[in-house]
Input
Amino acid sequence: MTNLEVHDTAPLGPVSDLEGDLASLRGDCARMSGHWSPPAPVSSLPVSPSLIHGVTVPPTSARLLDAMSDYGD
Output
């Protein structure tokens, strides 16, 4: 079982420090973008149709999709 007791809290400044405008958010993102690297490109090879055997859908998922008007009607 997880212990959910909180013994100490992190110090918070004024609420205005937590709020910002879109320009400050964009500036923060621009400064951090150099720290992020894009994922390596994934090249997938074609699969022979003889290797495709179909899709198995659990009955509960099929009932869920059947109940959705976009899919079941």
Notes: The mean pLDDT is 76.
